[in-house]
Every structure is written in C-alpha cells, then in structure tokens.
Amino acid sequence: MRTQHFDTLIIGAGLSGIGTACHLMRDCPDTDFAILERRQQIGGTWDLFRYPGVRSDSDMFSFGFSFRPWNGLKTMADGESIRRYIEDTAAEYRVSDKIHFGVNLSEANWDSAQQRWQLLGERSRAAEEGGNAVIEPVRFTCKVLISCTGYYDYQAGYQPEFPGMHDFQGQWIHPQHWPQDLDYGNKRVVVIGSGATAVTLVPAMAEQAAHVTMLQRSPTYVLSVPAEDKLTHWLKRWIPEQWAYGMARRRNITLHRWMFKAAKRWPQLVRKLMLRGVRKALGEGESTAHFTPRYAPWDQRLCAIPDGDLFAAINAGKASVVTEEIDCITENGIRLQNGDHLPADIIVSATGLKLQLLGGLALKLDGETVDTRNRLTYKGVLMEGVPNMAWVFGYTNAAWTLKADLAAGYICRLLNHLRDTGQGQFIAVDNEGCMGDTSVMSALQSGYVERADHLLPRQGTRYPWKLLNDYPQDRKIMLEAPIDDGILEFSATPVAENHRAQEEAAPTG
Q1: Which of 95, 107, 245, 467 is 20 to 30 A distant from 122 in Cα terms?
Q2: CA distance 498 to 41
Q3: 391 exposure class (CB count in 10 Å sphere: 0-12, 13-18, 19+)
Q4: CA–CA distance, 113 with 312 (Å, rounded to integer)
C-alpha cells in the first residue's frame, strides 16, 4: 500500500474545508496540501441535504466567505446555489485539483517518533459502466492535520424510536436521506419537528401537498426576514457592486451581534418584540401559542423564514401547526397523547442531527485513543495536548462561516510562524488547570447538543480555553494577537521530510 505525504491535510471539502484551502492558497502559497473528502463531490452539507426548500439558516452576506463575499440579493439562498458558490470558490482559488474524493478515513494517529500524522482509511472509486465500485485501502501522512468535518454524522440523522412507527403503511422519511423521486402531490404530510429543517420543509411541501402539518413537542422562535436585500439592490445603482456587498456584510454582522446581545441582556423585551411579529404575520384572531417557546431567545438557535413563508402557508390553509406529544404511530398517521389523530400519507421525521466529531475517525496519540470529552480547545481551534492538529468549528450563535474564516486565518498565521522560526511542532498546553464543566456548544440548549455532551470537548474557565462567541473580539485576537503567547509550545522537527507528494512504503499483509 502506497503512502502519500503532504505538509498539511484538510479533512472535508465542504464550506469549512474549501474555505480553509483557499486561505492556504492565499496566505501560505508554498504549503503542499491536499483535501480528503468522503463524498464524490464538493459541498459537504450542501451536497448532502436535498430536501424541498433546503436553504441557509443565516443571511448569506454573513454566511459567505470574507475573501469572496456572496454577490446575490437573496437573504437566505437555496442549497444548490450555496453548493455552486462553494464549487465556484474552489475553482477560482485553484483548490479543486487538490481534492481526493471518496476517501473514508477510519484513524488518525500522531507518531511522536516521526513527528507526523498517519491516516488510514479506504478510497471508493466510482464504478465503471456495469461494474461495481472499487474500494481500496489508503494511507496518508502529514505534518499538520486540519479537521473541517463539521459536527454531525453524515451517515444518519437522529431518529427517536416512536411506538408503532414500523406499523405505518405510508412513507417514512428523514430529511437527511431524501428520496429525489418522492411524489407528495395531493398527499397528507406530517413533519415531526420544529427546527430550521421543519420550518423550511412545511411551506415548500405545502405548494403541492394536500396539507402539511408541523407536529412539534414544543415551540421554537420563528422570525420573518426579507427574502431579498432591497437596500443593497438600490445601492448597487450608485456605488460599485463590491462596495455594496461589503457594506451589506458588515451591516448584517453588526445587526446580528446587536440582536444576540440584546436577547441576552433584555430577554423579555426581545421575546415580546418577536411574538409581536408573529401576531402580525398570523393576523388578528389567530393564536400565537404554537410560536411561543418556554425558553428565552437564543437559548436555542432562532428559525428565520424568508418573507414569512411559513405563516403565509398557514394563513392560506395549506399548513397547520400542532403542539403535542406523540402517543404512537398508527398504520395511517400519528396518535397524540391528547387523543387526537393526525392522518398522514407521508411522515417526515425532521427530528434533528446526530453529532459526530472529526467525521467519525478515531483520533490517537502514539496508538492511544484521545478522549475528546476531557480535552479543552485553545481559541476554539486547537485541541489541548494534541500536537500539530487544528479543527475548524464555526459559531453556534451566528453564521458558521464567520468563525470558520477566522479559524482558517489563524491557522495560516500559525503555519507561517512555524516556517519563519524553523519550528516543526506546536501544541497547546493547559498549565494552569483551566478545565471547565461546559462543552464547546454549551451556548445552545438544543437536544442534539445535550445528546452529544459525552463527545464534545470542554470549555475552560477563562480565555483562551473559554469561547468568546464574539466576532469583533475573536477577529482581533485570531488575526492580530501574537502567535507565541506562552501557552502554545513549539519544538523543532528532527525528522527529515520529503516535502513533495508521494513516497513509497513497504507492502503490507
């Protein structure tokens, strides 16, 4: 089995992976790197999810890359447009040819003697006509490993076991595995869930379905936003497009940050304003009970909907919302604990994600598995005690890409520091006992976060082990503060490196 060696390896060719690769091309042009992607094309999340209406849950001016701003007017773009945006960005920055598709990694082990990462897995090659896909073992090594795999399991979403669900005679679907040939025209559809996926699916399916019911256990905050940015459209007539889009990005980042801070400082006032918007959208006489959560704003992510499309579907009689616990699934629908029965031809189980770190690979140090649950993260980018590894993890309280961009920028600064000082290894070390009790996603109280608490790294009691979740502060620290801060430890690399791509290893087995 041949071993391929690179200076740096990026795992994942989604939004974070392509963004990080572009940063390397811009800021570390001499770095020999590759991207390892499990799927057969670019896009990550935006290639995986293909359900009706799939779109961003953040405004696109914030969600786009800082170095290649989104240049459309849609506030929340559809999934295919986002996938094309990622693909076009990869092409523009010449990283497409650096992607190894079909690589499913099982293990990443840091070898202290060699001072390099050793990655094992399998590569699946597309089948030729009439044949079967070819699967072969692969091995890679690198000096620096960057995980851009996101935080959920691509193979399966979270599916609770409901009594009687196997008795259902209709179609049972999870949005993560949407059948592209599904015919839901004039069908009765029940969508179980109340998060971003559910509020997207309901109005999209209501256009063709006989009726769509959103069945939720408890309400979520739903905020209507303009579908298009009319101010930017107007500004483009008077100033260069690049300036207009840049202004829109800065404006939206600032507005979102103000909204989040206001929600934390004056939760009852923000709650009142949000519910006032719901009442206005539903019209007089309609109850807002199904959109009145028990928790404060931003204890969980808000659900943004363009031009109030969910409310419009409800007002048109094409959709409805029911808040109740499920008693059991029947042959032709769902029986609720209050005794009501919801008839259904199709049940969509939009019950959330199953969290998974590092794409599911086993992380090891000299053959010993790393317990991520008992590790801190340094500036949200490095894992305490793990050499020459970074992970790109976005914000949970803002657009994911804002923090992903900063993380990639910081990683480039770190790699350049190694080059300029002749060092080969970096490691973040907690010498002051800063271990805390909360995880890196503790800002959210969502079910999928609570279910994964046993996997998630911890936050420390103070910075840089504690997350700020504040873009202006993070930007200054990540892009301007000194790299050598007394917490990161550096050492030289005694092992002679072959800096180009491939080296032969002895056959195995």
Answers
A1: 95
A2: 29
A3: buried
A4: 63
Is 157:352 a contact under the CB 8 Å cutoff? yes
Among 15, 52, 51, 18, CA closest to 33: 18
Tally of helices (H runs) and strands (E runs) in the chain: 12, 26
Q: Which of 308, 447, 448, 187 is nearest to 173 (CA)?
A: 187
pLDDT in tens, the chain (509 residues): 789 999 999 999 999 999 999 999 999 999 999 999 999 999 999 999 999 999 988 888 888 999 998 888 888 899 999 999 999 999 999 999 999 999 999 999 999 999 999 999 999 876 555 556 788 999 999 999 999 998 777 888 888 899 999 999 999 999 999 998 999 999 999 999 988 999 999 999 999 999 999 999 999 999 998 888 888 888 888 888 888 888 888 888 888 888 888 988 999 999 999 999 999 999 876 778 999 999 888 887 889 999 999 999 999 999 999 999 999 999 999 999 999 999 999 999 998 888 888 888 999 999 999 998 888 999 999 999 999 999 998 887 788 899 999 999 999 999 999 999 999 999 999 888 888 777 777 666 666 667 767 777 888 888 899 888 888 999 999 999 999 998 999 998 654 333 333 333 433 33
Distance between CA atoms of residues 417 and 400, nearest Å: 26
Q: Which long-range contacts (CB under 8 A, 24 or more apart) does 490-497 make?
A: 490/418, 490/421, 490/423, 490/425, 490/426, 491/423, 491/424, 491/425, 492/422, 492/423, 492/424, 492/425, 493/115, 493/143, 493/423, 493/424, 493/425, 494/115, 495/114, 495/115, 495/116, 497/5, 497/7, 497/143
Phi-psi region of 171 (alpha: psi -120 to 50; beta: other; left: phi over 0): beta
β-pairing, 333-336 vs 362-365, is unpaired
* Distance (Å, whole) CA 486 – CA 78: 45
List, in order of start, the domains of the chain with CATH numbers.
3-154+354-503 (3.50.50.60), 165-349 (3.50.50.60)
Any idea what DSSP says for residue 374?
G
CA–CA separation, 347 and 351 (whole Å): 11
CA separation for the pair 293, 388 (Å, rounded): 43
**pTM score > 0.85 for this model?**
yes
Helix (H) or strand (E) holding 251: helix 241-265
Q: How far apart are CA 423 and CA 425, in angstroms?
A: 6
Q: Can you tell me the distance from the alpha carbon of 128 to that of 140, in angstroms, rounded to the nearest whole number?
A: 25
Alpha carbon distance 479, 315 (integer Å): 48
Q: What is the DSSP string of 75-99?
A: SS-BHHHHHHHHHHHHHHTT-GGGE
Cis peptide before 464 (omega within 30 of 0): yes
Residues 10, 392 contacting (CB under 8 angstroms): no
Question: CA 181 from chain center: how many Å?
Answer: 26
DSSP state of 152: B
Helix (H) or strand (E) holding 48: helix 45-48
